[in-house]
Specification:
The chain has helices spanning about 15-25, 45-50, 65-75, 85-90, 100-105, 120-125, 125-135, 160-175, 175-185, 215-225, 255-265, 310-320, 340-350, 390-409, and strands spanning about 1-5, 30-35, 75-85, 110-115, 140, 145-150, 155-160, 190-195, 200-205, 205-210, 230-235, 250, 270-275, 280-285, 305, 325-335, 355-360, 370-380, 385-390. It is α/β, with parallel strands linked by helices. α1 runs parallel beside α2, α8 packs antiparallel against α9 and α10 packs across α14 (about 390-409). It binds cytidine-5'-triphosphate (CTP). Cytidine-5'-triphosphate (CTP) binds near residues 274, 309, 310, 311 and 329.
Length: about 400
């Protein structure tokens, strides 16, 4: 695919070098068209080296090739990142005083703007009107992320992560239905904290007590939240699948490490998704040296102690800090003679005090390590259950949509 990558004059231009790499490594031919101001942040040589193609900002370069018309005509996709307030204004009004402006007027292919600017500039009525105009012209304008900006300030205005722009851009071309989902990005501006994987509780330097969680569902949730526009922090215990790009990763081993990481990161989160399989018990003692076989009859007996319930603790901390935060837990139930899977799940929702509970029906061969899942989503606020079945990715998307809907309420 032929992509024109317009680069605006903002500090986030440096992140667009990674976006360019993602496009070229995926086999696309990319022509970089910076504005004159953009070259103050990242120079022409960098763009030429990374794209392997000549770079100019002006319609008066390569006049023989009628660049300003040719680039726009031939493009399959135009991506502008960072789209500064100035670029959005110029594009909304059809100004064509440089090569990028010309290209945008000529292009009839999908166009994606990834804005980045200070919060005040983003919220200004002029910028919002320009965004609305561009969308009415058929362009896709991502909402900026929320987070740390150039100075000490923080708020909406951060450039979405290169991986998120990359995914949104390709979706725009490959699957317009998905592109709408990306463009809407129901979690844009939200911070989502996800725990995933199984904790491991050491007995000695070589042995541990673990569980059969692969981390697939939690990882799928982190990726779905990222695709929905959230800034994602992933606290990962033992996982057997790769970590998705574009999420902040915190690695942990034991339940106690997971607890500390969740307590540290939860104050900044709008939603906490507790998908980790936390060991309920840990060995009372952890030997500093390998436990050896000794004489017959003296084999060790492992004494277990209870681990803290992290989910319940996060709910308590939210109340103590009067935080507006949505907390979601998972439950793995088998049901038995005294109660059904759903009866146990309702009790668990009450006991833990979280807002949503995703209930898995588990058995020997069900759920763990599998790619498909069948769950019920239970909510404290309404008695209706939502049944979701499909791949772990499909379940993750449904859970993320539900979280976004609850946050919007
Ligand atoms: N969880 C937690 N801390 C623990 C145990 C579990 O935060 N020490 C979280 C899990 O991440 C999950 C939810 O609690 O989101 C439910 O876990 P589950 O193991 O099903 O529940 P338990 O509290 O262990 O209840 P029971 O043993 O009675 O099934």
């Amino acid at each position: 695919m032929r992509i024109v990558l317009g680069v605006g004059g903002g500090i986030a231009a440096f992140k667009v070098a990674s976006l360019l790499r993602l496009f070229t490594e995926a086999g696309h031919q990319v022509t970089v068209v910076p504005t004159e101001a953009a070259l103050n942040f990242v120079g022409q040589a960098t763009w030429e080296a990374l794209s392997g193609r000549p770079v100019s900002t002006s319609v008066f370069d390569h006049v023989d090739q009628v660049n300003h018309v040719r680039l726009g005509q031939e493009a399959d996709l135009v991506v502008v990142a960072p789209a500064t307030a100035n670029i959005l204004a110029r594009a909304a009004h059809g100004l064509a005083d440089d090569l990028l402006g010309n290209t945008l007027l000529v292009a009839t292919c999908p166009v994606l703007f990834a804005p980045a600017m200070h919060t005040e500039m983003w919220r200004h009525a002029a910028t919002q009107a320009n965004v609305a105009t561009l969308r009415s012209h058929g362009a896709h304008v991502l909402d900026p992320d929320v987070g740390r900006l150039t100075g000490k300030d923080s708020g909406p205005g951060r450039l979405p992560e290169p991986q998120a722009i990359f995914a949104a851009a390709l979706a725009l071309v490959e699957d317009p239905a998905r592109a709408v989902h990306h463009a809407e990005r129901p979690l844009a501006g939200r911070h989502v904290l996800v725990s995933a994987g199984g904790t491991q509780e050491p007995l000695d330097p070589v042995r541990f007590l673990g569980n059969r969680s692969s981390g697939k569902q939690g990882i799928a949730l982190a990726a779905a939240a990222r695709d929905a526009g959230a800034q994602v922090t992933l606290v990962a215990a033992h996982i057997e699948v790769p970590v998705p790009a574009g999420v902040e990763l915190v690695r942990v081993g034991t339940a106690e490490e997971l607890r500390q990481a969740m307590i540290e990161h939860s104050p900044a989160a709008d939603a906490v998704l507790m998908a980790a399989a936390v060991a309920d018990f840990r060995p009372a003692e952890r030997s500093g040296t390998k436990i050896k076989k000794r004489a017959e009859g003296t084999d060790p007996v492992i004494e277990l102690v209870r681990n803290p319930d992290i989910l319940a603790e996060l709910v308590r901390l939210r109340h103590a800090d009067a935080r507006q935060q949505l907390i979601l837990g998972f439950a793995a139930e088998t049901g038995d003679d005294s109660g059904s899977v759903l009866e146990y799940a309702r009790q668990k929702l009450e006991k833990k005090g979280c807002d949503l509970l995703v209930v898995n029906h588990v058995g020997e061969d069900k759920v763990f390590g599998q790619d498909v899942n069948s769950v019920e989503i239970l909510s404290r606020s309404d008695r209706e259950m939502q049944h979701v079945e499909g791949s772990k990715n499909a379940v993750a998307r449904a859970v993320v949509e539900r979280v976004a809907a609850e946050l919007a309420d």
